[in-house]
Amino acid sequence: MRLTIRRRAGRRAALLAVGAMTAGLLLTAPQQAMAGPPNLLSNPSFETAGAAGSDMPSCWSRSGWGDNDFAFATVADAHSGTKAMRVSLTRRVDGDRKALVTENATCAPSVTPGRQYDLSAWYKSNTPDVSVTVFRHDTTAGWQYWTDLQNPPVSTAWARTEVRTPAVPPHTDKIAWGLSVYGVGTLTTDDYALEEVGAAPPQPVCSGTAEECAKGRWEVIPAKNPVRSMHAVVLKNGKVLLIAGSGNDIAQFNAGTFTSAVYDPANGSFTSIPTPVDMFCAGHVQLADGRVLVMSGNKGYPSADGSIGYQGLKDSYTFDPATETYTRTNDMNGGHWYPSATILGNGDVISFGGLKEDSTGNVTAEKFSAAQNKWLPMNEVNQTWSYWGLYPSMILMQDGRLFYSGSHTFGNGTPGTGASIYDYDANTITDVPGLRNKDERDESASVLLPPAQDQRVLTIGGGNNERNPAANRLTDIIDLKQPAPAYTAGPPIPQGLVDQGQGKRPQTGAEGKMFVSAVLLPDGKVLETGGGLHDRADPVFEASFFDPTTNTYRAGLATDPIPRTYHSASFLMPDGRVMSVGDNPGNGTYNHNVSVYTPPYLFKGARPQITSVIDTQWVYGDMQRITVNRPIARAELIRPAAVTHSSDPNQRFVDLPMTVDGNNIDLNVTSNPNLAPPGWYMLFAVDANGVPSIATWVHLGGPSALAAAQQQPSAHEHSFANRPGPAKANPPKRDSVPVAPSAAGCDRHYGTANVCVPTRFPDGVQGTTKARCDWLAAHTYPKRLKVNGSDPLRLDPDRDGYAC
């Protein structure tokens, strides 16, 4: 499972020729900001010897980690002058070795937060396993790894490599860097340079109203969602698949009416799609070829008396965006209503949790083989016999392990600390500490923060549908690069207006949100929007940006005018806007209005344009050239959404370090498929003011590239999370775990299965018939709910068979 990959040796043959032609066509366009003198490095060519007794040149140090055999030598085979540095690896299990700018106040160059720097060096190498590795000095935390930027190709003659850093993070005053060797071979380097990129760009001119430029704008589009969708997937052609199945409507289930629709943003149309089974509350993920794998769904609704809960399907299908049809795969090994779905670095998919056909909790892991296009037999999949709950958020880490963030849907968290690391190869689970109120993170959201290379996860809000307290404002952040990762407290979610049936009022105290949406944006921010104060009730009208560089929220954005709680979804479109659909409160209604958010960055004037992409078929470790019409500050790949119930563990933003030559930009593609699993991505170019281009679709990896990649080292597999603590003992082999039929938080003694009368009413609602009936009336429940059998909530005092 810990797949790594070797980079392709060099660019495509036409790269330089096409680049030269496009450069000629763009001579009159604004030119990229360029770095220039002075070189900020001391002793960049190794000519000055170190202090007496030192075996390294002045201002250079031996560096590296892992189990390998290596040698450092100052040699006369220089690009200029009389000295160069040679680093060799003759045996490698893991890790790297590099000559690194000495991390001290004298040798490490000073830098300015927010600015960018061009790093360059001359080198010769007989191995492709080389990377440009950068460290930064944090004024409070000291020296720390920052990022890997580039994989220079093999070169037997002297060649120059150059790459631009991202914007220097806050609280950084110095950086150090070097070329790392992480595979067996020899690297010789000379004539390093670090130069600051030119002056900051001019401030943008607002192209909308002052409020739009500060807060963005929401609009409700004329067309309505024709289906009661619970699932949204942005397809590789820019369309959106909306899956409803029975749409949480037992009448449609009984009639065998299962629905999906495809929305085309180009013309605003919806197309109904024949849907073979009830995909209500299924799992889904995009495969490497762009098909959507849809797993499980609903075999049966709870019984009227509440003695039987939801039942999961074994069925599995793929959806082809080209033909807009579903095709059945083989069955899963068991039913998984509310399963997880995570794509791995080799293109396989792993799934956990959910409810079986008999409504018990499923404890078996399922694995879909991309090569065989099928679910594997249970005996071919490592099993811990652990129950991960419903929609457990399982995020792929940079070394192939999975991080369970603690986000899930319905009930309490898993036993332990609420978050853990799962090592599939070792078949071990290790708890991770620090997640606050771990049994009130039900219906929270978790995202791998931009960029994926930083390996930081943000978990937002949540509650507990069994006890039904007010949702919390908690956010917690974990850095999975740390040796023993632990969550630390983040800033509280900003508060907005809540509607509890008597009109909107400001939130107070610790009131937060559950069923919140979190969307990665091309400017590197996270849009937090939607959600409610209680399970399936009391929508909160508030939106904010979370900034990963400062760990702060920007509150007070424009808010979606449509409530978005249970069964809602928000997702990024290729044009940089965000679409929101759905809302299915406990009274059984569904909101078919569709909202679109235009972020403030689209009111900052003209957008940069990607005027050419030489190749849309990308390979790990490759360098790909694009041309742009004006200067940009960053480029990235964003994996298209596949979201349901606040959960999209595959959402990720992958930075593409740039080598800049005027308006020709060479993008350095990660060599690690665990950072960017194979598939179709939206490529955005973003200027220094955060204004993104319209995305270009590119495909990363593919079967041939992955097949050739087995067991090759990766520059990015540092010794992160290597001391998380002892693994837990796995449970003995078992078939399932008991799950109460009331796991969905609904008392089924009232109304139909799609109406959710809370098992526990919110705090503040007295336990009297009148208070409970008043709450139901304020939340527009049907006026007469049939009582199915007994009356545990005492809603039928006159015993006429109807509540209230």
Automatic annotation (TrEMBL):
Residues 607-699 form the Galactose oxidase-like Early set domain. Keywords: Signal. It comes from the Bacteria. Residues 489-508, 712-743 are annotated as: Disordered. Residues 1-35 form the signal peptide. CDD domains: E_set_GO_C (cd02851). The keyword Membrane does not apply. InterPro entries: Gal_Oxase/kelch_b-propeller, Gal_Oxidase_central_sf, Glyoxal_oxidase_N, GO-like_E_set, Ig-like_fold, Ig_E-set, TAT_signal. This is Glyoxal oxidase-like protein. It comes from Streptomyces avidinii.
